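Workshop exercise sheet. Pairs work together: one partner reads the sequence aloud, the other fills in the structure field after running the prediction. Swap roles for the next sheet.
Pair: D.N. / O.F.
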Amino acid sequence: MGAVDLGSPIAINLQHGDWWQRCVHFLLIAFIASVCLWPARAAARSPQTASPTLRSADAVRVERAPKLDGTLDDPLWKQAKPIEQFFQKEPAEGQVPTERTEIRILYTQHEVYFGVYCYDSQPSQIVAGELRRDVSQDLDDHFEILIDSRHDRRNAYVFEFNPLGTQLDGLISEEANQQNSLNGADFDSGWDGIWTSEARITKDGWSATIAVPFSTLNFTKSKNVVWGVNFKRFIRRKNEEDLWAAWRRTWGITKVSEAGELHGITEIGSGRLFIVKPYGLLGAEQMTGHDWHALDTGGVDIKYGLRSNLVLNITANTDFADTEADQQFFNLSPFKISIPEKRPFFLENQGIFDFSTGGTDRLFFSRQIGIDPNTGLEVPINAGAKVTGAVGNFQLGLMDVETRSTGTSPSANYAVARLTHPLFGSSYIGAMYIDKRSGGNPLDPYNQSAGLDMRLVLPKNVSLYFWGAGTRSLGLTKNATDVGVSWTYLTNLLQLTGGVDKIAPNYNPEVGYVPQVNAKEVLVDPLLTPRPKLRGVRQLQFECFFWRQTNTLDRLQIEQRGGRGGVYFNNGSYFTVIPDFLNVQRLNTPFNIYKNISIPTGIYRYDTHHFEAGSPQDRPLTLMGYYEFGTYYGGKIDTAFVMGTYRPGPRWSFSTGETWNQIHLPQGNFTVDVASLQTNYSFSRFLTFTSLMQVNTSNNQAVSANLRLRYNYRPDSDFYVIYNVGTQFESLNGSNQQQIRDARFAIKFTYSFQPRFGHTDGIAAITPDSPTSRMGRVYLGNAANSVLQ
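Structure field:
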């Protein structure tokens, strides 16, 4: 079906039909079935079921570091009382775990040590295949340690490792997982800390030893320390999550306020953070239409702890050559797209700068700095500085970045300030201000954004989020606001989310992300999640969603609605279906979707049908995919997507994905194929090779490649060999335009060190026979206590 007249009977039916009545009937039937199949409360509250109480643990002082070889054979570990009482979050909330776990905690003057033993009745079934640092470990057995060193019950560090000792770390800000909610991670993994880990698979499970310098936590208090701590174990083959605290299904490890407490740390040295990390780069580059030219540059990054929990980051002549390339895509809508940030300077502590204005909209979106939003080309950064952390009861984020002119991008300065103040529980009130100044664009010399927001976390897992923001730029000072409210209500059976939002016509956050202005939006999304007594089934899902957007004069722009049903199995496999997804959309300008094919303005109604499935997640080969078909802008569309990962062992892994779109329109027919193949080979945890090959037959009509060899020769220090051809960063523009191709070969060297000012007492001991010593790695505790305090 093609363009629709809003005054026609079919348009009236679209706006005022019986969809809500059908949706209510669907949810009511699902609810009755859920109650009938729901396990009896008596069984759910067996004598082994836990009740939420504040957990407490103790750390024991030792005079030397224990042997950090992945085992707990060192007699020092026996001095610490084991932490044992875990409870299931998944699948049986509050029940005793199916496997036993023990943790012991020691500390010296400059470091804290965790000895972890994960007992397993079937050690041959332990899943461990990832050797690359900072890569998701969701396909592996893994363990997480949460440390709330400030003990503010809102913010925390998380250290994750698998049975191979591979590291992944990150931050939780304001008791929320801001960035990584897209991929299911527990925390924002943009932060990298200096810590050590070794692990071994044993005859009755797997064990690990962890050392975290106090300087990594920027922790300066020295007496009678109380930390918030929590621990999470994930058993891949059982898809089981066990936690020491915050084990409720609606909580999880991100619920920092429900973490336990760690006592016993006292009389320690100051752990003030001070790291200098220079880099040097040599190579050659060729842009489309230009000859090859040499690359020879260098710069430096500095981290300094201004005070406990307040860190200064400085960067000069910043380089992102080693940043992972973006996955390519084909945009089926006329709107801008949101691409996750991957650059280290902007990733670190990025949760502090989060200011959501509904859905994926952001008042601040760091990809608008240093990357041309239209071409995707890198815009050189002269220098930048960032202060993040806590001052009193305030959470503070300050940033200033200066870019220089290149191509069509003029020089600019970006200043960002974010401040939040806690209210009751994990509620807060906050403010944000952004000031962009462009030195080379008289038509757009400045752009300013400001906003206030508030999150209220109420009893019974009810959360309300309010925001109001405005912008100011040349010629656009009125009708430039965005105000709204969103809400969530979470139980084990029902998840209800929704919100309303109004975006004025002149709202223009140039350093933010808003795909559509001049809009009023309403969203209602109830989701039932029953857990019936069905063999192999963990959860059923029944959802009805409704999203409607008009302009500020109440003229319909977009309306989407549909229902979804899904079955999720204990082994991680699933199947979902959207029997009918209805979309009504007004195009106010023509949409150039492919080469010379443009969809004209008008009102369009189309229905699509979606089927999706995923395989068990504990196998060497994992697969997921979907098939979607229906009407589309007056024509028809068929879309198929498949993604697979094959890990024959811990050294090799292969990931492939392909999206195939066959589109028939009155303006013409075409097929677009976007495919990728990523190959990873790990010589060890510290020497890895990654290649990403991509094919895109849309307007790009090209093959791109990103090859990267990384040698992590000491903590936070790397040697890279990089070859990139095609496009490293994707454009945020939604028009599927052809991007400028770039070919680059580079050798990059980084060296991270902590200035010692002549003091050497803070260097942690390394036993001669430890794997870390054999790699030639050096741990630096705080060697400048008297100078930095």
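Discussion prompt: Helices lie at 9-16, 19-37, 41-44, 344-347, 771-774, 785-788. What would you look at next?
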